[in-house]
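User: Sequence in, structure out. Go.
Assistant: Echoing your sequence, followed by the C-alpha cells.
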Amino acid sequence: MNPNLNLLQPYPFQRLRDLFAGVTPNPALTPINLSIGEPKHATPKLITDALVNNLAGLANYPTTIGSLALRTAISNWISRRYNLPALNPETSILPVTGSREALFAFAQVIIDRTKNKPIVISPNPFYQIYEGAAFLAGAEPYFLNTTPENNHAMDFSSVPADILNRTQLVYVCSPGNPSGKVMSLAQWKNLFELSDQYGFVIAADECYAEIYFDEENPPLGALQAAHQLGRDYKNLVVFSSLSKRSNVPGMRSGFVAGDAKIIQAFTLYRTYHGCAMNPAVQAASETAWNDDAHVVKNRQLYAEKFKTVTPMLSTVLEVEMPDAAFYLWAKINNPAETDTSFALKLYRDLNITALPGSYLAREVNGINPGKNFIRLALVASLEECVEAAKRIQRL
C-alpha cells in the first residue's frame, strides 16, 4: 500500500458520525441538516431537459478534453462573469468531473517529488482535499491560520523563506470555506508576486464564486485579478463548478482554466487518469454555463435566507454576513462550551446537524483556528433555516 495513505486524517463528516455515535436526537423535533455544503435548491428544468435529451451520448466514449462546444461555453461564461478577453477554449480550459477530484488530481501533476521536501500551502481552516492531495503527491502540507484577527486572510508574510523556497503549490479558496471571505486585489497582487519570486503554482478554488448577495458586486476572481494587474496567467489555474452555481452536485461537472502550459500537462495526466465527463453531462453542462438567469434566482434564495437568519443568530452567537458562499461561520462565546460539545447539544436536544469548526482545521503553533466555531450551511429551505435559528435562540 502507498505508505502516505497512513497520513490521511478522518474526513470531517466521519468525525461527526463518530461524535454522534450512540446519541439519539430529540424525536419531538424534525431533523434539520446544516452540516454539509450540499445544495438543496431544485435543479433548473433547462438543465435536466438537456441531460435527458442527450442520453444518446451514453453510447459514446467521451474524450478527456470534452467537446469544443462545452469548452467554448465555459470560455464565454468566464468572459461574461469576469469581464475578461475570452480564453482560448482549445488550450486554456479543461472540463473536469467536479472541482473536488480536480483539486486532488492537480497536486499529483504539479508536485515534483525529486526536489527536496516539497511543500503545499493552504489556508487553515480548509477543505480537507487540499491536505490529502499534498500527502498523496509526496508533499508536506503547510497551513496558514485564517482568523477574525487577520480578517480570515492568508498572511504570507509569516511564512519563512526556507518554506517558500520549498513550496511548489498554493491552494487558495475565494470565496472562502468556511469564512465566506473574498480575496482583495491587493492580496492577489501579493500572492502573484510571491509566485513570481519562488516559482510555485497557484490553485484557486472558486467553487463558491456564484453565491453572493450584491448583484452589482460579484466576488473578484483570480483570472480577473491577474488581468486587472496587467498580468498573464502564468502559474495560475482556477477551479470552478456547477454544483453550487446551478444546484447539480450529482452531475459532477466543473472546469479548470488558466495557464495553458499547465492545462496541457494536466490534460496528459487525465488522459491516463480516466475521468472524462459523460457526454450527456457535457451537453447539460453546456446549457448551464450558457444560462445566467437561473443563477440569479438561486442567489436570491440564498440572499433571503442570510438576510433573515443572520440577525436572528447574531443575538446568541458571534456571527455576521459573509462576503459570499452559503456558510455562517459562528463563534461560540460561552466559555462552558466547546465547538464539539455545542454541536453535540444541537444534535441531541434540537435535532440540528452542524459541523464543529475544529474539524475543518489543524492545530498550528498550538492554535486550532476552527476551535469554538460552528459551521452552519444554509442550504435547507428558508423555513427550515428559520426554524433552526429559533431553536438555537431558545437553547
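User: And one key feature?
Assistant: The domain at 3-42+294-394 is CATH 3.90.1150.10 (Aspartate Aminotransferase, domain 1).
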